[in-house]
Amino acid sequence: MNRLPIIIDTDPGQDDAVALLLAAASPELELLGVTTVAGNVPLSLTTLNARKVLELAGRRDVPVCAGADRPLDVPLVTAEHVHGDTGLNGVDLPEPTLPVDARHAVDFIIQTLRERPAGTVTLCPLGPLTNIALALRRAPDIATRIRRIVLMGGGFFEGGNVTPAAEFNIYVDPQAAHEVFTSGVPITMAPLDVTHEVLTTQKRIDALRALPNRVGPVAAAWMEFFERYDEEKYGQDGGPLHDPCVIAFLLQPGLFTSRDCNVRIETQSELTRGMTVIDWWAVTGLPANAQVLRHADADGFFALLTERLAALP
Ligand code: BDR
Ligand code: CA
């Protein structure tokens, strides 16, 4: 099988953790490495959590490289109120023995892109875009070597989740997002508009909990912790399972509808900092710089997720 080589850049986070499990379980993907960034919780915790998740998945072969501990030019904002104080509340996992790789995340990304044939490696950012922007700053030559960036971030019809205008990942480091969206690298973005269609309903969580392995009940416990915040906020059964949409798109793009749009990032305004200004109706005449996912087949998504997680320990 011709596997798609990917690097996941992440700030786990329960939904990041489920995305890591889905990637770890999918034979179509070659998981070259996991790079961590400060976001949902500080860097020391996102790095610890990434190691725990890979160990749970039985993927000690995947290097974990720690990256930026703060955004480019604003103080770090975290989301313990959503994810809990560890970032992975819901179930206690053992201390991992998988070591942190000696390479900095930014060095790992640059080195990997230069070593691999140009146009083959896909970057999958699931948190603030700090590491990706730093890599592009330090090594502009990698821009033409990246096959595509498939990221979770932003929102349009749905607005924001951390402010009325902004989604968390873009809000935390708007300058990094601006640099990524103007880099010329092909981008696919999974904004809140699509992730809010992928809800962790009780029935879907129950199906995961019933898997005859360790991973199924753990994923169910994470989702139950993670969804409580959004269930209360939006008054619905289930919370949006944001980050796994990125991996599901790589595996089954037909689960999603999309449109190519021009996307710009607000970096200046205090009121709308981190807003993704998506020209959905093509009123600006500006060239498209991103494929924007819009709708998802949520049942198809959870069928894929459940089938794949069943293959893990
Ligand atoms: C994004 O922010 C984080 O809380 C989640 O992990 C996801 O990446 C959703 O806005
Ligand atoms: Ca995330």
From TrEMBL:
Keyword S-adenosyl-L-methionine appears in the UniProt entry: no
Pfam families on file: IU_nuc_hydro (PF01156)
Segments forming domain Inosine/uridine-preferring nucleoside hydrolase: 6-302
Organism of derivation: Roseateles puraquae
The protein, known as: Nucleoside hydrolase
MF terms (GO), sorted A to Z: purine nucleosidase activity; uridine nucleosidase activity
Alphabetized SUPFAM superfamilies for the sequence: Nucleoside hydrolase
InterPro entries per UniProt: I/U_nuclsd_hydro_CS, Inosine/uridine_hydrolase_dom, IUNH, Ribo_hydro-like
Keywords carried by this UniProt record: Glycosidase, Hydrolase
GO cellular component: cytosol
Gene3D superfamilies on file: Ribonucleoside hydrolase-like
Source taxon at top rank: Bacteria
The keyword ATP-binding is assigned to this record: no
BP GO terms, sorted: purine nucleoside catabolic process
